[in-house]
Amino acid sequence: MSKQDALDEMGQVIIQALENEVLDYKVAYGELTLNARADKIVSILTHLHNDSHCNFAQLTDICGVDYPERAKRFDVVYHLLSLTHNVRLRIKVQADDETPIPSVVELYPSAGWYEREVWDMYGVMFDGHPDLRRILTDYGFQGHPQRKDFPLSGYVELRYSEEERRVVYEPVKLQQEFRDFDFMSPWEGAKYILPESEQADDKRQGN
């Protein structure tokens, strides 16, 4: 059996076992991806962890993706590894910034830091997380920097104030406006002729 067929068979087995939790699956680029319900993520991962056909004992990552045009603008993506079957699995759920997703820390303790990172970068909340706070940005940071509508300059800047003898936050003040540089395409070439080129010599000679 080829790897593609083996992953397709695993996807069908998972769909049959979790027909009310997993929406669909696909096999692409040698990887299996499930699209699932966010409110059922704990029961889904519990099955994938404990079932002998799966044995996904390791959670290797949780990350986010932002699609601002969608009502549920975020994808929260779980990456699992089964050393028993030598297979990796990706589970995607959709979320917004108001409805919390159940935390999976009790099942996978490594999810603690991953969920904090998703909260910090995207603002997705995790219900039941024991310590949901920022992990990459400062505790006083405003906004979530991996959102596509987050400004490049941020909202506030941090500096040490000699007058107040402490760190202060202030609104960002740009020294100059962003400029729109219209760079020439490297495929079109310059409209002038460089003096040191052979073409410049030909032009001076009237050729």
Oligomer: single chain
User: What average pLDDT do the residues reach?
Assistant: 86
The helicity comes to 10-25%
Shape: globular
Pick out the low-confidence regions: none
Query: How many domains is the backbone divided into?
Result: 1
How many DSSP E strands?
A: 9
- As a whole number of angstroms, the C-alpha radius of gyration is 26 Å
Structural class, judged by helices and strands? alpha/beta
Q: Could you describe the largest sheet, including whether it forms a barrel?
A: 5 strands, mixed
* CATH class identity: Alpha Beta
Structural description of this entry:
This protein is 21% helix and 27% strand. It is of the alpha/beta class and 207 residues long. The strands form 3 sheets. It has a 5-stranded mixed beta sheet with strand order 1-2-5-4-3. Strands 6-7 form a two-stranded parallel ribbon. A hairpin with a 2-residue loop joins strand 1 and strand 2 (31-36). The longest helix is centred in the first third of the chain and has 15 residues, at 3-17. The mean pLDDT is 86. The protein starts with a helix and ends with a helix. The protein has a single domain (3-148), classed as NADH:ubiquinone oxidoreductase Nqo5 subunit (Beta Polymerase, domain 2), CATH 3.30.460.80. The protein has helices spanning 3-17, 41-50, 111-122, 198-204, and strands at 22-28, 31-36, 58-66, 74-82, 87-95, 101-102, 126-127, 156-161, 166-171.
